[in-house]
Automatic annotation (TrEMBL):
It comes from the Bacteria. SUPFAM superfamilies: SPOC domain-like (SSF100939). Residues 52-181 form the Ku domain. The keyword rRNA-binding does not apply. This is Non-homologous end joining protein Ku. PANTHER family: NON-HOMOLOGOUS END JOINING PROTEIN KU (PTHR41251:SF1). The keyword DNA-binding applies. Keywords: DNA damage, DNA recombination, DNA repair, DNA-binding. InterPro entries: DNA_bd_Ku70/Ku80 (IPR006164), Prok_Ku (IPR009187), SPOC-like_C_dom_sf (IPR016194). HAMAP family: Prokaryotic_Ku (MF_01875). Homodimer. Interacts with LigD. CDD domains: KU_like.
Length: 272
């Protein structure tokens, strides 16, 4: 597993050398853009929108569009001066309960690993203390020149760092069209059946029960075409939709459809 960040965690006056490793990976199958006649990848060149000339990397600078068509240039030196040069240091600011953080704030997860043998004791101590108190540490971290809010928590036999969105990066739900038109009260019978449907579909979460069906079908299609096999039409079970005319009928039909089947033992008839 490749190290993507190296630094330390400050826990009070204790400094713990650590490394970060990406905890998740995107397994989307990426398709390339090809020239239909040559079946070769399409190349894209960087061109100036004003003069139309191709621009090499040494002729490109960064800038911000503060008004339509108006830009201010920002140099790499100026960006560097704005950063905290202790960017390889994570100071835990507070400890909070995990339940107090709404999942909407979570962005990306990283495994935290010890960086040296000398820091193993302190690393293990922090992990155990966080686990015993059922708390998570809130800290700031700079990754690839961008500052992130982060949550540090115990995870299995190690620790996990999860970057969080800042409050001003999370949009208000009041901006959703039609959200203010929701009925404040629900029909009691409809709500009762909706709760019953939730109960019937409730189970313990097991991530291995879920899979990316589309990615698996696409991978199979690619393998077949690469092997020169004719593409086969994917067919699945046809789901029949009940003929329902209102919300209550739809809920009742859903409860009936998802009701668990009970096995009944066959009764033996006694003969005289």
């Amino acid at each position: 597993m490749r190290t993507m960040w190296k630094g330390s965690i400050q826990f009070g006056l204790v400094y713990i050398p650590i490394k970060l490793y990406t905890a998740t990976e995107n397994k989307d199958i990426r398709l390339r853009m090809l020239h239909k006649d040559c079946m070769a990848p399409i190349n894209y060149t960087r061109t100036c929108s004003k003069c139309g000339k191709a621009v090499e990397n040494d002729g490109i600078i960064k800038g911000y569009e503060y008004a339509p068509g108006q830009f201010v240039a920002i140099s790499e030196e100026e960006l560097s001066d704005l950063q905290d040069h202790a960017d390889k240091h994570i100071e835990i600011i507070n400890f909070v309960k995990l339940s107090e953080i709404d999942p909407i704030y979570y962005e990306k997860a990283y495994f935290i690993g010890p960086d040296s043998g000398n820091g193993l004791r302190a690393f293990s101590l922090l992990k155990q203390a966080i686990q015993d108190t059922d708390k998570i540490g809130i800290a700031n971290i700079i990754i690839r020149s961008k500052q992130h809010l982060a949550a540090i928590r115990s995870y299995q036999n190690g620790m996990l760092l999860e970057t969080l969105y800042y409050p001003d990066e999370v949009r208000g739900i009041s901006e959703v069209p039609g959200i203010s038109d929701l009925a404040p009260e629900q029909e009691p019978k409809e709500l009762k059946i909706a709760n019953q449907l939730i109960d019937q579909l409730t189970t313990a979460f097991n991530p291995t029960n879920y899979k990316d069906d589309y990615r698996m079908k696409l991978k199979k299609l690619i393998d077949e075409k690469a092997a020169g096999m004719p593409a086969r039409q994917e067919t699945g079970p046809v789901l029949s939709k009940p003929n329902v005319v209102d919300l209550l009928s739809a809920l009742e039909a859903s409860v009936k459809e998802t009701k668990p089947k009970r096995r009944t033992a066959a009764r033996k008839k006694k003969t005289v």
